[in-house]
């Protein structure tokens, strides 16, 4: 076992312990909260150290490691060696885990009755992501004496300055959708159907803005490479990434309406769950290899299809299951119809985004 694999194991075990401790804390065991926070910080430190270790291997051209040999070469510019971290599927799982864990550190500092329960739900995907790194991380090595003298390097299309910034921005936006999901789950568990708006709304605004920025960057990059009409190809992976943004934008409009009128509670819970489930679905499409012949954004199959599908189904079951259990208990005042108030316009805006989401998914 090398250092990177050891760090992956530490991150996974810390995530597992933190999840159990946050669960105990949400059930009323105050003594579990301090160990939960400590374990969560240990998880972050292990993930940050794993990322730093991978970067060290990439920059030192240590071709004993399969990942380094696949996504870097001695002739590559340093900025593209930097981007090698997210150039391959194993590295993106590690980056996804670190970004999600970093966002959790921010949430953990928020003093709100829903925070502890929300941290349990935010930690769920971290258990799965760190387990992926344990199972198929970027620290696998070639047999002794059988490693290449030089690596393959990044795909030439990816050796562009936008590669150094576009993927991390998108990952930050997609990862941040776990926050509204986790807070919504905590609100359903605690039956706090309006109190979740205050802690969730800044996250929804943040994720909407960051994802929009990422899409603009991607469009500029594609236009630069492909010319007129190339900024958006409507391929399955592009659409799969666009749909969660539409759902999240609809949630943003709905929360603003609910904050004033008290309506759209059920719709907003549904959208908070759906936005993150759609992120996982898009990730499954991208990483399972099923779209390798249809999308230039698709990764090759790592043999994790069953695991990724289980991850998707688990989070969908948790989210929609909690919503169904509480559905009759959630007050449902009618939507603000019949006037041209700001709230009614926001409601119409939500409908437009939901319709666009459905049309993009079907088309």
TrEMBL record:
Residue ranges spanning the membrane: these are 6-26, 38-58, 78-106, 118-139, 169-189, 201-222, 269-286, 306-325, 345-362
Q: Which GO terms describe its biological process?
A: cytochrome complex assembly
The organism's superkingdom is given as Bacteria
Q: Which GO terms describe its molecular function?
A: heme binding; heme transmembrane transporter activity
GO cellular component labels? membrane
InterPro entries per the UniProt record, alphabetical: Cyt_c_assembly, Cyt_c_biogenesis
* Domain Cytochrome c assembly protein residues, every copy: 87-288
Keywords on record: Cytochrome c-type biogenesis, Membrane, Transmembrane, Transmembrane helix
The family line of this record is: Belongs to the CcmF/CycK/Ccl1/NrfE/CcsA family.
Name of the protein in its database record: Cytochrome c assembly protein domain-containing protein
Organism of provenance: Eiseniibacteriota bacterium
